[in-house]
Amino acid sequence: MGWLESITDGASAAWDATTDAASRAASATADAGSWVADTAVNAYQASVDFGNTASGYIRRGEEAVTSGVHWIEDEVDHGTHDLASRVADVPVLGTLAEGAADAVTFATQVDGGVIGGATSLLGGVANAVVHPIDTARGLETMAEHLPGPVGQSLRLGHGLIDMATGDASLGDVADRAFNPLAEARENERYWGNVGSALLNPYRQSFEQGRYGEIVGRGAFDIGLLLSGAGEAEAAGTAGTAGRVGELAEASRVAETADVARVADAADAARIAETADGARVAETADAARAADAADGARAADAADGLRPAESGITEGASGHAGGGGFVDSIDPAAEAAYDGIRANPGDVANVAENTRLPPEVVQRIKDHLFNNEHTLTTVEGEAAEQSRFVAIQDYADLWRGAEGGTLTAEQTEQLMNLMTHENVEARLAESGLNILEPVDPVAGMRPFRAQGAHDLASIAERNFDPRLFDRIPPEVRSQYLRTMVEGTMDVRGTFSPEALQAMPPEVQEMAAQIARERAAMPVPPPGGVP
Amino acid sequence: MRFDDVIARLRTVRWGRAAAWSPEALAWLRAYYQRLVPLWPSERARLAPTDRVIEEAALAALPDDARARIAAEADALWAAARERGERVEPATKKLVTFVLAWARAVDSGTLDPERDPGAPLLDLFAAGFQVNYTTAGIELHYAAGWNIAPVPARASFA
């Protein structure tokens, strides 16, 4: 357990550093208007007392702690700013009081960031331990993109280095450091595109305006990296079971680090001890990603350079299914997907209720729920490895199919979904990209009718000629058979009316496949109509 | 817009039959999300277009008779669309029930028409676009294809 002791020491050191910073902020506050700070400290202590009293009732889990920390931060924020507002109209004093209130809020958020770092210990550190230097560089880049004087100073320093090495002009440096519009644009672009499991907590803190949390969380993570990186890296290659035990052990670091100052430390420890399977799996996934020599991508995500330089606006790289950037659009749907993944018996039941071959149902389940895919994000950029984002309606349809409880309309939706996923899976197995890359100018995935998703959507719509005509001839000649076969896997043979509405070459392909399948010794597949 | 006017306008919609793509479609989608902000939980960085949070906000407060009327009107719309050979996406169907629910709220005076999230959706549908939510993002369908928008972030509307 030597590495644990190192982490403990490191965490304690990080904690000391952050509390020192908070104390300095409080001192500055006192200079500006001590009565505001005193009141804030009282409010802060009251919040802590509330947190300790309520801790026994707090739901175990990281979200609960995060919510609790945010509640405390917000209480302090509201309390101090409410007091400051009372003197808002007093020249000088009003400004000072507002500044002091900001400082108190910021210091509280620093503490909150440390708590956040502790509660998401494995999720945050798993990638970082593999590339500690890149991570530290990435954290500095993050700090540069904090609104206000801290980020401005760091950007100026960075810019001066660039100017000295000939990589930037004085005008570039001045614009980047002092032009508020350029700063705002760059910050929005940077934080809007920061992704990966490691960086999401930072991005969420930024989106919620909790800038202090970024500093606190960063200090905590750096503390861990500096104190136990070597041993932690070895731990990162250990088996999943080992990591579960280490998670429980590591959680007690938070207890040692006196995190009870903001929230109940025992809760933080219990969170890790009761960590659910999904969280463990998430951590294991991160470790596997690192083991798979995907470090370059992680490093790029960590320093935020590639997304920031891509020119993509906030949403463009944050699209659903686009490489894990938004793997938690809907927490309830993600939990439902976890349940589906953990259910080994559903394939047989879905197959029975839909009359689809079990191997087709298994392929669809693997494609939609289980497997990671290579998903293209930004035009010209490397693809991301990720599961699809969870969609509640899909989970509901799947579970309804398993239980045989779907209405006629839902059954129609299910069969469209099954057709889409089966065709898409088969096209992906053929080597076709699933998603069109995001057009960096439009900030959208344009319809090109070339990727597996678009082609599957065309098949799902019975090869609507208006859509089919958009498929480039070379794509059509290469993938038409797979599209038609994948559709017939689910729908069986087409009705005469449906066939008549299809383009002639689809009709011919469907007829050919139907003949081949009719000649086979087993009956052709096809689910409920 | 009042409920009866919304129904009348929806009856004229040809679902997903816009002849060509228009950037206005994306602008209408963004306007919808902009008007969701008051009911958008701060802890949810992103919301699917038909997220249950939205569904509950739109439908929970309605009396049973209002819900029944909305369901009946929607069923009539989908039956007519099927007659015309138009496929209506599941997400669009849900959004239409939201549009109708908010129209009822406008009628009852509990929702300011200027803040009605259904209004930009109605414009989107009336222009011949429809919405589909998939693993690729939010698809905006027109007659000869679709473009896929990312799920917007709450922070971008602050």
Please, could you describe this protein's structure?
The complex is a heterodimer of chains A (529) and B (158). Chain A is mainly alpha-helical. In chain A, 71% of the residues lie in helices and 1% in strands. Chain A has helices spanning 2-54, 62-85, 93-119, 121-128, 132-144, 149-164, 170-178, 180-193, 196-207, 211-236, 240-256, 265-273, 277-291, 295-303, 305-310, 331-341, 346-354, 358-370, 392-403, 408-429, 452-460, 465-468, 473-491, 496-500, 504-518, and strands at residues 373-375, 384-386. Chain A has a two-stranded antiparallel ribbon with strand order 1-2. In chain A, a hairpin with an 8-residue loop joins strand 1 and strand 2. In chain A, helix 4 (121-128) packs across helix 10 (211-236). The radius of gyration of chain A is 27 Å and the shape is globular. In chain A, 47% of the residues are buried. Mean pLDDT of chain A is 62; it is low at 1-8, 10-19, 21-67, 116-138, 189-198, 220-320 and 322-326. Chain B is mainly alpha-helical and 158 residues long. Chain B has six helices and three strands; from the N terminus they run ααααααβββ. Chain B has helices at residues 3-11, 23-36, 52-59, 64-83, 90-107, 118-126, and strands spanning 130-134, 137-142, 145-149. In chain B, strands 1-2-3 form a three-stranded antiparallel β-sheet. In chain B, a hairpin with a 2-residue loop joins strand 2 (137-142) and strand 3 (145-149). In chain B, helix 3 packs parallel to helix 5 (90-107) and helix 5 (90-107) crosses helix 6. The longest helix of chain B has 20 residues, at 64-83. The relative contact order of chain B is 0.24. The chains are: A mainly alpha (529), B mainly alpha (158). Chain A binds chain B through residues 63, 67, 70, 188, 191-192, 204, 206-208, 314-322, 326, 328-330, 332-333, 368, 388-389, 391-393, 413, 435-436, 438, 442-447, 449, 453, 457, 461, 466-467, 469-470, and chain B through 21, 26, 42-43, 45-48, 50-52, 87, 90-91, 133-138, 143-156.
